[in-house]
Design brief:
Elements lengths: L1 H37 L3 H15 L7 H32 L5 H18 L3 H11 L12 H40 L7 H15 L2 H11 L3
């Protein structure tokens, strides 16, 4: 009787362990997109591209799918050296069973942390360290990801909004000039936005705007 009870308990424990592992796996898969967005250049790139579209006043052109796709591939291009290091130092040794899962995670987090620390303001790091209530580590590299990721994210948001401000300036000047000309000609019923749109598009094409925006975004991470 005792043996049968023990066998049943072991069987139940094995099934429960498999259920827990399955649940953890699905939870990890669900969190992967968020992790990739908040630990890469994706946030800055996408917001800057959105500001560019809004500054031109082209509404939904380019569409959201195009901007998100472009931001995704630009992020992969920018993060390629980081992910190559993660693959060589952590993923391949783990797949070859040379290191444990915990050691693979620690090795893989190092290049990602280095990338985020390079583009995170010290004031943002200090903010989340103080909010966490924990003792500050000896070096920034020892910060946990739970502290580093939000600090990196708000730093990227600040940088993206700064880029958006700079992008808006020339288009705002075109809008002001067109509005002043229309008012001086007495054309109050004609929308300045409708008249200025072709001039903004022409200006953007003449200066090769997409080239300049993409170049600035990519070189900003180099």
């Amino acid at each position: 009787m005792f043996n049968e009870t023990l066998d049943a308990f072991n069987s139940y424990s094995g099934e429960f362990s498999e259920m827990v592992n399955l649940f953890l796996m699905f939870t990890f898969i669900a969190l992967v997109p968020t992790f990739l967005i908040l630990t890469t250049s994706f946030t800055r790139v996408l917001i800057s591209l959105s500001f560019t579209r809004n500054a031109m006043g082209t509404q939904q052109t380019p569409p959201n799918q195009v901007l998100i796709g472009l931001a995704l591939y630009l992020s992969l291009f920018i993060m390629r050296p980081v992910y190559s290091e993660v693959t060589e130092e952590a993923l391949l040794p783990f797949l070859e069973e040379e290191i444990s899962r915990e050691e693979a995670f620690e090795r893989g987090a190092v290049p990602i942390k280095d990338f985020m620390l390079k583009h995170t303001r010290t004031t943002d790091l200090d903010l989340f360290v103080s909010l966490s209530g924990e003792t500050p580590p000896d070096t920034p590299e020892d910060l946990p990801l739970t502290t580093l990721i939000p600090a990196f994210t708000i730093s990227e948001l600040r940088t993206a909004f700064t880029i958006g401000f700079l992008i808006f300036i020339p288009f705002l000047i075109v809008d002001l000039v067109v509005a002043s000309i229309l008012m001086s000609m007495g054309m109050f019923m004609l929308s300045p936005v409708m008249v200025s749109l072709p001039f903004k598009l022409l200006l953007f094409v003449l200066v090769d705007g997409w080239y300049l925006v993409i170049e600035s975004l990519v070189t900003g991470f180099m």
